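Dear colleague,

Thank you for sharing your sequence with our group. We've completed the structure prediction you requested, and as agreed, I am returning the results in plain text so they can be pasted directly into your records. Please verify that the sequence below matches your submission; if there's any discrepancy, let me know and we will rerun it promptly.
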Amino acid sequence: MLAIAKASFLSILRNPSAVLFSLVVPFVFITIFGFIGGDSPSIRIAIDPNSDTTNQVYQYLKSNPAIRIITNESEEDVHKGVEKGDITALISITKNSVGDSSHARYSVHATTAAAGKDKFPLLQMVLKTLNGEIESREFPERKQYADLSSPVVLPTREYKMIDFILPGMLGFSLLGNGVFGVAFLFYNMRQTLVLKRFFATPVKRTYIVLGEGLGRVAYQMITAVVIIGVGYFLFHFTLVRGWETFLEMLLVSFLGLAVFMGFGFIISSFATSEQVIPLFSNVITLPQFLLAGTFFSVAAFPNWLQHICDILPLKQFNDAMRSIAFEGSSLWDVKGEIGYLLAWGIVVYAFAIRVFKWE
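Please find the predicted structure tokens below.
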């Protein structure tokens, strides 16, 4: 019994997949979700560039742990963030009376959207609390340091959870199947000598790869149609321009899948056994599933980690798909994300061609 137990224990240690899923994956999840969590809820706001920032209201907002002021986004990005609820409100602070700081009064105006309705009441409560603290601590002999006006609610479409989740799940499916599917397929074809048998036919090697690749692309495109269709008809997923948006999403899906399959070709060449394929594949896919905005917005991460997220091809794919579907962007509007995917494709396939093994 002890001998069997010892052998079983050693076999687990020698299995990379077992070590990955029992140790590495839990650690990664704990680390990632640890960044998301915190001691207090985070409310993301932007400050109007014309605001007065020399007053106590701004200083208290800046030092409040529940408030996160966005400072590195353009006016257009801020407007889009408010529309989608990524930014709870755009705050404008204006000085509406003449005098020194002990007598001046300020007005605080907030612009929000339907998508930010969940966190906006909390923001209002924070503003009222801060105003009370300012009046009691800084100016105990006077009241109404700041007037908090009613918010301006932008007349935008409702940004539903499905509008965020569906593009992420589509990217999840394309990346997972592109990497795992291609890696297992060509490794097994090589090990079972199927590729060697193909060489005995007049079919060129390029057409062998293209044939297998196109078959997988066709399957994944059908999967993409099903995912988008189910989201649209059952959960009211937003397709702003109807069929045009749908077709553009399929084109981006095709590009994304082609890039993701390149990783599968590389893994199938480096794999020395079938057992290590899941290990190599998860090294490629797992960080992207967690850091590319698949399940939740990367805005919850620290700024330094967001810069790392922007490097990932799945992040660019998700951003492009959400812009096309909800914001009505055209392919030209998301040329930056598409260009980034094309650059990844060039690098990945240049490397895959050098390392790909036929036997």
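Summary note from our side: The longest strand covers residues 106-113.

Kind regards,
the structure core
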